[in-house]
Task: inverse folding
């Protein structure tokens, strides 16, 4: 059993909970996940099975979300799971004001992670410090938001905005909700979050834990082939002789216009692992399927 499971994480489960459940269902020790999701979030959580856990570090870091932002409210956690700090009706807020403010969050932006997050400061998790009532200065980080699309807008004392967000690694959607409220001077918090894409996996193709159990009982479950999740990486193909040497840890001379991290295949399209091209030398980084 090796490959990937595109799991639709349920509400109120931690990513660790999901890994533990999958490990038990599959009776498999080596299980890991990419891209932690908060318990209150749902959606795509890529799960690596067996030897595929060694490929997690090579997955694409780009992600996409559907989020609901509630304006007029600030909370300790920047979502509805936290305690309310301020609550002020803002029925007079116009859609035009929101659209203009939201445009400031596209591109490369500076973002301070939420106080309740897994970011470490001096070796300690922010959420652990926050739970103990300790206040620390969290440095801003540069993150990239590729695109924000407004999906829906509901007026009221505490108006809500549905958005689709495509972003790079390390982006906190809770922080966007918080900071949008700051720009509008109304306060803002995240009301709901679903991850629709992660590491090349899409929500439409995901399986719930119930789906997984049903497929296992029917004997129909098949993990996603390992290199399917690596299509963002360029590839090189080796001859049978070179492939065997490469799998034995040897560096292989190769003429190629590529550079950096690549997928490596044997002539008959057999996925061998991950290599690094330095000049005209292919260096083994992770041999996934050795040739005997």
Result:
């Amino acid at each position: 059993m090796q490959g990937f499971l595109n799991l639709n994480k349920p509400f109120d489960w931690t990513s660790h909970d999901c890994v533990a459940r999958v490990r038990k269902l599959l009776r498999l020790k080596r299980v890991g996940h990419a891209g932690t999701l908060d318990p209150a979030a749902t959606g795509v959580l890529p799960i690596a099975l067996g030897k595929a856990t060694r490929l997690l570090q090579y997955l694409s870091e780009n992600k996409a979300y559907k989020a609901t932002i509630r304006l007029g409210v600030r909370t300790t956690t920047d979502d509805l799971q936290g305690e309310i700090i301020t609550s002020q009706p803002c029925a007079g807020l116009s859609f035009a004001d929101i659209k203009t403010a939201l445009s400031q969050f596209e591109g490369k932006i500076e973002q301070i992670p939420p106080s309740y997050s897994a970011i470490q400061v001096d070796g300690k998790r922010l959420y652990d410090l926050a739970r103990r009532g300790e206040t620390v200065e969290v440095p801003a980080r540069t993150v990239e938001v590729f695109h924000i699309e407004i999906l829906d807008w509901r007026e009221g004392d505490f108006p809500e905005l549905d958005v689709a967000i495509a972003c790079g690694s390390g982006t906190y959607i809770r922080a966007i909700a918080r900071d949008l409220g700051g720009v509008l001077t109304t306060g803002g918090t995240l009301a709901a979050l679903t991850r629709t894409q992660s590491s090349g996996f899409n929500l439409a193709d995901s399986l719930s834990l119930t789906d997984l159990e049903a497929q296992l009982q029917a004997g129909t479950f098949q993990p996603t082939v390992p290199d399917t999740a690596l299509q963002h990486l360029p590839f090189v193909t080796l001859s049978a002789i070179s492939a065997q040497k490469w799998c034995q840890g040897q560096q292989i001379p190769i003429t190629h216009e590529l550079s950096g991290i690549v997928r490596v295949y044997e002539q008959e399209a057999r996925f061998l692992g991950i290599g690094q091209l330095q000049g005209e030398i292919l260096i083994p980084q992770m041999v996934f399927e050795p040739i005997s």
User: Anything to note?
Assistant: The longest helix spans residues 15-26. The longest strand covers residues 141-154. The chain has a mean pLDDT of 91. The chain is about 20% helix and 35% strand.
